[in-house]
Amino acid sequence: MSKKALYHFTILVILFLGCHQDPEYLLDFDRIESTPGNVTVSINDAFSLAIMVTLDGSTDIERLSVYRLSKDSSDINDSEFKKVMDVTPSDSTVSIIIDTGAIYGQYNFYTLTGHYGEVESFYSDTVSLQFQLEAPQGSVGLVDNGIKQTIQLEYDFMTGLEIRRASNLDTLIKYALYEGQDAFHLVDTLQYDNNSPLDSFAAVLHPYLDIQPNVNYSYEIRSFQDRNDDRIFSPILKIDSVVYVVNEPILTVSALTDTSFRIYCKNVSSSEYDSLFIFTLENSLWVPTSAFALEEQVVHNNSYLIDIPSIIQRSHKVVVKNTSYHSLPQSLVGMLLPISGFTLIESGEFTWGCIESDQQCNENEYPSMETFVDYFYMGVFEVTKQQYSSPGSWDQGFESEPVDSISYQDALDFCDVMNAIYTDFTFYLPTEVEWEYAAKSNYGAQVNTIFPWGNQIDVYNANYGYQNEGPISVGSYDFPSFQGQYDMAGNVMEWVDNCYEEELSQSNEQENCWKVVKGGAYWSDGSDLRISRRYHLPPDQGFDGVGLRLAMKPNNQ
Asked: How far apart are CA 87 and CA 115, in angstroms?
């Protein structure tokens, strides 16, 4: 046998013996199809990644080798993979490999090989994943009793949530554990800490237990997973500028009389606040001296009107509150009128002239018109004989009968005398519009009335129809107008500063015109006590049953 023939024979023997040992493996395993295919990677939990491998079921693979490369960037370049584990594939065609050594926050690249005996397949295609959890999803909004956070986790393996709430007042961190719920529903409540009164406010005011109104809150929310002593957080869900807005009341004050003041509470509604407290300083403690339910107070010109009796003028703190929150304490001085016998008439609109419900109107009480009246002060009583004769002793003259039988000019002269004595005020005769507004406008009920007390004549409400032989002491009848004036009907008529015309008109330009008188006298019949009823008399003569009532404005207002 030649050397060439011997060589060929030897090769055939080797091939025959090798194929006899494992012919299928040696034929197939070297092929590229034997390389692990369909490799994917995903997040298993906050501490590990899951590598899923699909194997050809017809290929015998004893084990898989996992190679990993971790980098901050997504470029592999010439970086070297390192083997991190060998695993035995599962019986099924799909194997899931958990890599607990994956680096959180980095790009993790993987390639795999298969082994049979000492022979290793080609490397699989490289797969990668940036190991980074998703931030939780959710929203923050207002509910009746506070700020609600509705949060959904992106993963069911998380342990819970960390919520960081910040404001210019404080920073709060709280935790909520995941117990399989579809979403977290958390409420930061607007409520008082009733166990600890606010300093210096005598147990009526309390600090807030959680959030406060009109404070800007921001939220940073992230989920986390705990394992042993380690904790991994997700990125942060940021929500800025959440405010539980409550209108802060606008509080002002005016002198109502010499023994009371009026607080105007504006920019509030009964859905926000239900009560108002007045505090007075006593022994370094603000003590509540008055409390008012807002729904019981008169509303006029978009303000709640709260009348406070007081014998001295001093400072107060005023707070508007409800069961969950209160306004900031505001300081007000309870101003009192430095002269007695007058009360404030609020500005407003009313029907001047005959009102629809009055069926006894005369032609000169038309045309009726909606008319605006600015604020002023008006005498609570008609000017008495004692005051008229001794105006310098004004405060001591309220218990006598009204001055009677004076002319319009006499009334003007008396105003001049009062202005000379009491220089802080301007005294004058009310206009017909002012007088009628003070007598008929019930702005608490938002109605105009026929008589100062209502729409029905009553012999017990006024001195009229010769019940008495003449005028009687002012204030003898306990039925003032809504705005606080006594004897606006009956006793004596009252001069007003308006020229008379056959129809309603505000005019004083005519010289020596006859002037309007209002209110009826002790000798009038019931229909003549109607508020819109108009009389007219010459200005230079006095008449039985005709007196006056003063109007006034402080000079510093």
From this structure: 10
pLDDT of 141-180, one tens digit each? 999 889 999 999 999 999 999 999 999 999 999 999 999 9
At 338, the amino acid letter reads P
Query: Is the CATH number of domain 345-554 3.90.1580.10?
Result: yes
Instruction: Give bridge partners of residue 37 from the DSSP assignment.
Output: 54
- The count of C-alpha atoms lying within 13 angstroms of the C-alpha of 527, restricted to the half-sphere facing its C-beta, is 6
CB 451 within 8 A of CB 489: yes
Distance, CA of 251 to CA of 235 (rounded, Å)? 46
Domain spanning 33-130, CATH class: mainly beta
**Do 33-130 and 253-336 share a fold?**
yes
Q: What is the pLDDT of residues 351-403, one digit of tens each?
A: 999 999 999 999 999 999 999 999 999 999 999 999 999 999 888 777 789 99
| Sequence spans of domains, the chain | 33-130, 141-243, 253-336, 345-554
Q: For 301, which DSSP code?
A: T
In the three-class reduction of DSSP (H, G, I as helix; E, B as strand; rest coil), residue 425 is classed as strand
Alpha-carbon distance 334 to 261, whole Å?
6
Kindly report, residue by residue over 58-110, the tens digit of the pLDDT: 667 889 999 999 999 999 988 999 999 999 988 778 899 999 999 999 999 99
284, with CB counted inside 10 A (0-12, 13-18, 19+), is exposed
- pTM summary value: 0.76
Q: How many CB atoms lie within 10 A of CB 437?
A: 29
What letter does residue 30 receive in the DSSP assignment? T
Choices 2.40.170, 2.40.160, 1.20.120, 2.60.40: CATH for 141-243:
2.60.40
